[in-house]
User: What shape does this take?
Amino acid sequence: MTKGALALLIHGGTDNWSPDRWKGRFDAVCRDRRVILLPATGFEPAEIHYAAVWKPVPGELASFPNLKVIFNLGAGVDALMVDRTLPDAPLVRVAVDDLTSRMTEYVVLHVLMHHRQEHYLRDSQRVKRWAPKFQWPASAISVGIMGLGTLGTDAARVLRRIGFQVLGWSRTPRQVDGVACFHGREQIEPFLARTDMLVCLLPLTPDTRGVLNRAVFERLNRTSALGAPVLINAGRGGLQNEADILACLDDGTLGAVSLDVFMQEPLPPDSPFWTHPNVVLTPHNAADTDPDAISRYVAAQIARFEAGGALDNVVDRMRGY
Ligand code: NDP
Ligand code: OXD
Assistant: This one.
């Protein structure tokens, strides 16, 4: 019997996201299944049983009448959730060690960069200034992570091992060894009050949009060795109020920020974030998705699904993540 085909719909992404590279990887792991990189001709929409997608244009998936599973090629599904015509098939997101470790590298790098005063040290090197400042230990700093899911939990564990005090905030109660866990709107105040460095790894949903705003920044602890609170956002740009971030940097409510994600990507050349002295920015590459790891993950899920097994990491459409 012919196996249902897999359609690939890929828009945007980084250098690593060449659609041909994805097609090559999927051809290699789906050897007896037709893989169709869209746009294409010479196929029947009815033969598509699976779609592997990144930022498909709203409406694109609705043209496949026999779709059984939609695989998002990243962890965040916000781009799909806005498609009112999204077929009612299970939507699976990425949760694999490869992506998780990359995000933990990003979080640890940026937490350490602010903690170890790298800005000051690099400036000192540029002007040949031998003037070490007092360096406090990791145990003097508390890192509060918004989002204690796949990514937040891994980052929390590694930061804990380095010696930071770690707090986490989620929607529902969570338990992570050595991490002070808070949940829900009712516990956000005590979470923020004890946080020196705020790391955001939340999904973008109607509940979380704009959550990184002045009211939140003003509630962070201001008495730590850092001098002023630090924000690190690698979740989504829509989580942050960008005017508030800039104003809070300028009036000292925030000391510094690391941002991997923005309301508009690519970040426009005239954005003040490019040149602000207290902003460290990266082009949404905190945890790039690896086509090798993800194509294997998708192929394994399809094989299990066709054998009657359950899919992993299915998005709850009511929650939006
Ligand atoms: P998960 O779904 O595993 O975890 C999400 C976490 O956020 C959970 O702890 C969840 O709470 C919490 N959360 C969701 N809504 C709320 C809310 N309203 N209030 C409080 N907490 C909330 O996601 P991942 O950890 O895999 O990924 C998180 C996000 O990271 C992705 O959605 C994506 O946007 C972003 N990302 C960014 C990348 C980059 O390169 N910059 C790469 C990959 C992902 P609960 O535990 O109760 O469900
Ligand atoms: C993701 C991303 O969601 O790369 O995986 O942003």
User: Anything to note?
Assistant: The chain has nine helices and twelve strands. The radius of gyration is 21 Å. The chain has a mean pLDDT of 96. Residues 150 and 190 are 23 Å apart (CA to CA).
